[in-house]
Write a structure and sequence with these properties.
Layout lengths: L1 E2 L2 E2 L24 E5 L22 E3 L3 H11 L2 E3 L7 E7 L5 E5 L9 E3 L1
Parallel strand pairs: 3-6, 5-7
Antiparallel strand pairs: 1-2, 3-4, 5-8, 6-7
Length: about 120
């Protein structure tokens, strides 16, 4: 690469992920990054001795939304039918035993419609 006539021998990749989290195939070009964020932060950080219920990411995928849904299916997450795969997804705790999680983009104001991804 050259900037203002100065040669900079640096290898630059557009992607941090070598493989898609959905299909495990190599990502060529820019990945779609999805992070799981809580709507309200807790007042105190969790202890390092406890395991977080969700890995916040960012998780990286091919640009097709089907790769995000394949990852969600494999993890056992539910999908809100009123949302799309976006950079920031909100986790929704689903009561039951064992507890389950749904993911939504949080851009709608009506009730969630959680379905298997």
């Amino acid at each position: 690469m050259e900037i203002l006539g100065i040669r900079i021998p640096t290898v630059i990749h557009d992607t941090n992920a070598v493989r898609c989290a959905g299909c495990h195939e190599p990502i060529v070009g820019r990945p779609m990054r999805v992070s799981l964020l809580d709507i309200v932060a807790t007042e105190a950080p969790p202890s390092w001795a406890t395991k977080a219920p969700l890995n916040p990411g960012p998780h990286q995928f091919h640009a097709d939304e089907a790769h995000v849904r394949a990852w969600m299916r494999r993890k056992g997450y539910l999908w809100c039918r009123r949302s799309e795969a976006r950079e920031i997804m909100r986790p929704i705790a689903v009561p039951g035993d064992p507890p389950r999680w749904g993911l939504c983009d949080g851009l709608h104001r009506d009730d969630h419609e959680l379905v298997p991804a």
